[in-house]
Each structure stands twice: as C-alpha cells, then as structure tokens.
Amino acid sequence: MKIVQLATAIVSEILVVIKELIRSITALLQQENSNGCAISVDSLEKLLKLCQGFGVQVDELGACLYPPQEISAIKVALEKISSFIKETETELQKLKGSTDDFSKACTGLRSSLGQLEFELGCPGAADLVPELENLVVSN
C-alpha cells in the first residue's frame, strides 16, 4: 500500500511540474509578443513530446501497481520520469524560461521519486532474515 501512496504522490507532482511548465511557456509567449523575439517551434514540440512521455510513464506506473506489483517495471518508469525531468529543465533553460516555481516543482518530483526508489530498495522482512542469520557478533 505504501508503494501505491508514493506512486500517487509522484503523479500529483508530475501534474504540478506540467502546470508550472505551462505557466513558464505562457510567460515566454507573452514576452515574445512584447519583445518580438521568436520562440523555437522545435523547442515547444520537444517540450510537448516530453509531457507526452510523462503521460506514458504515469500509465506504465499505474499498470505496474496492480498485484502482483512489477517492481522492476516501476524502477524503469521512475528512471524514465527522472530523465524527462532533466530534459524538460534543459529545454526550458535553453528558452530562458525556467522559473523558481518550475524548479521547485521539479525538486518536489525528484523528492517523491527518491522516496519511492528508497521504498523499492528497502529489503522486506523476508529478505532480512537470511542476512541476520549470517551476522557475526563479536565482543
């Protein structure tokens, strides 16, 4: 159940990142109109593809949560989401449109990803018993 709760938090954080990305792009477009500077369509298309990638990974993450939970597939989805964060930040920085709120949203998403990765990496009680049996106690 803990994994499902953390996955839900990740989905919520992804929505916050996308919301802040839209705000950043909107601000850039407003600047474009007032300054006459053109925003690269290629950059906007790349950001769109990254957002679509987030959506695909949210679907994958959701599918992996049904019993039996596919831990390896969850880890792959988390890695891809992490990669999408980096690429999105890089692309927005190229456009000089990154905001503090966008950066905070990305940091929040990274934190949620880290929590789930930690939870997935924590050995369960069944994994600890053999390790404890091999423990040597010395005086």
Explain what this protein looks like in three dimensions.
It is built from five helices and no strands. It is an all-alpha fold. The protein is elongated, with a radius of gyration of 20 Å.
Q: Kindly state the mean pLDDT as a whole number?
A: 87
Largest sheet: none
Q: Care to count the β-strands? A: 0
* Beta-strand fraction estimate: under 5%
User: Structural class of the helix and strand makeup?
Assistant: mainly alpha
Distance between the termini: 40 Å
Ranges where pLDDT stays below 50 over 5 or more residues in a row are none
Indicate the topology:
Elements (H helix, E strand, L loop, with lengths): L1 H34 L5 H24 L6 H24 L5 H22 L3 H9 L6
Helix pairs in contact: 1-2, 1-4, 2-3, 3-4
Q: Top keywords for this entry?
A:
139 residues, mainly alpha
Provide a concise account of the structure shown.
InterPro entries: Cro/C1-type_HTH, GCIP-like, GCIP_C. By secondary structure, this protein is mainly α.
